[in-house]
Write a sequence for this structure.
């Protein structure tokens, strides 16, 4: 849930870059979007690393892509593509952690 809130905050932040101060929830998301996204990246990474510690590497990479796409550039197409790629990376990592047998996981 937190990644979705972070993504919404980032989108609102990008849209709000040319506007003055916003009120209500949108204003909160614009102001705290980067912090929410960083917290989301750390929480998703931790949750995936609990199953497989090696999963922290692709999870952090996908999170870094999300952050870069949302806050380090100003192109909307690039932002949307990096959001899709970042969430796809998290989904692929999640599915990898759910797999029963993996060549990278020691057997019992």
């Amino acid at each position: 849930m937190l990644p979705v809130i972070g993504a919404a905050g980032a989108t609102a932040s990008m849209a709000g870059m040319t506007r003055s101060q916003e009120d209500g929830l949108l204003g909160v998301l614009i102001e705290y979007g980067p912090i929410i996204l960083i917290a989301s990246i750390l929480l998703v990474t931790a949750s995936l690393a609990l199953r497989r510690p090696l999963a922290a590497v692709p999870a952090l990479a996908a999170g870094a892509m999300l952050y870069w796409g949302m806050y380090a550039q100003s192109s909307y197409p690039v932002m949307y593509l990096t959001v899709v790629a970042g969430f796809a990376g998290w989904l692929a990592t999640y599915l990898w952690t759910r797999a029963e047998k993996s060549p990278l996981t020691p057997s019992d």
Summary: The helical segments are 2-15, 24-51, 56-71, 76-98. The CA atoms of residues 62 and 86 lie 5 Å apart.
